[in-house]
């Protein structure tokens, strides 16, 4: 790495990825029965040898912090798939799910978060989305999310109407 890229490996952030059995993962305190991986604090653990979803968490957490679950899981879902697997219509209204978190709601919002996050990334760009993650607290309620949304993207209801009315999610995310 030092020769090829001119980078000193000792100066780069280090992440740990652990491949474990389902039983070992089940011993982790924040798992639910359907959990296949966890990622955060430069550490990922999964029942698969490679799970992009958890790697995305590590990278974005480093840039933007933990953020509210809807968008934190949305970015991991949006970037784990190949372009040919992008969400397609019909798109579901994300507003009822914005204040959801995995602890209280399981995985019920992941598909909706994936589609809406993909749309936001393709329409408004990565910088605005990272800023949303950075400023949106984990326990944010809908009013907090609406306020941040207005600052970064515009009126939530108008953006959702555009999203639901769109033909396809942007391919460039």
Short description:
The protein is mostly helical.
Beta-strand percentage range = 5-15%
From the alpha-carbon coordinates, what is the Rg to the nearest angstrom? 17 Å
**Estimated structural class:** mainly alpha
- Uncertain stretches of 5 or more adjacent residues: 1-5
Helix content: 40-55%
Major beta-sheet overview? 3 strands, mixed
Number of domains: 1
Total strands? 3
Q: H/E element string? A: HEHEEHHHHHHH
Number of helical stretches of at least 4 residues: 9
Strand order of the largest sheet: 1-3-2
Mean pLDDT: 81
- The gross shape turns out to be globular
Cα-to-Cα separation, first versus last residue: 28 Å
Walk me through what this model shows.
The structure is a single chain. The protein is mainly alpha-helical. The protein has one domain (2-165). The chain is built from nine helices and three strands, in the order αβαββααααααα. It has helices spanning 2-5, 22-26, 52-64, 69-80, 102-105, 110-124, 126-135, 142-152, 156-165; strands at 16-19, 37-40, 43-46. Helix 3 (52-64) crosses helix 4 (69-80) and helix 6 packs across helix 7.
């Amino acid at each position: 790495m030092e020769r090829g890229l001119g980078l000193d490996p000792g100066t780069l952030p280090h992440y740990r990825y652990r491949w474990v059995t389902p039983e070992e993962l089940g011993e982790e305190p924040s798992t639910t029965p359907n959990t296949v991986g966890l990622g955060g604090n430069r550490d990922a653990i999964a029942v698969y040898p490679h799970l992009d979803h958890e790697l995305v968490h590590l990278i974005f957490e480093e840039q933007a912090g933990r953020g509210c679950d809807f968008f934190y899981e949305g970015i991991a879902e949006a970037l784990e798939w190949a372009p040919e697997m992008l969400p397609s219509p019909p798109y579901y209204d994300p507003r009822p799910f914005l204040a959801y978190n995995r602890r209280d709601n399981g995985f019920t919002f992941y598909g909706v978060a994936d589609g809406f996050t993909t749309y936001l990334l393709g329409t408004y760009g990565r910088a605005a989305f990272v800023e949303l993650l950075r400023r949106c607290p984990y326990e944010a309620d809908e009013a907090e999310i609406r306020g941040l949304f207005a600052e970064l993207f515009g009126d939530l209801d108008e953006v959702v109407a555009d999203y639901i009315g769109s033909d396809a999610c942007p391919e460039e995310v």
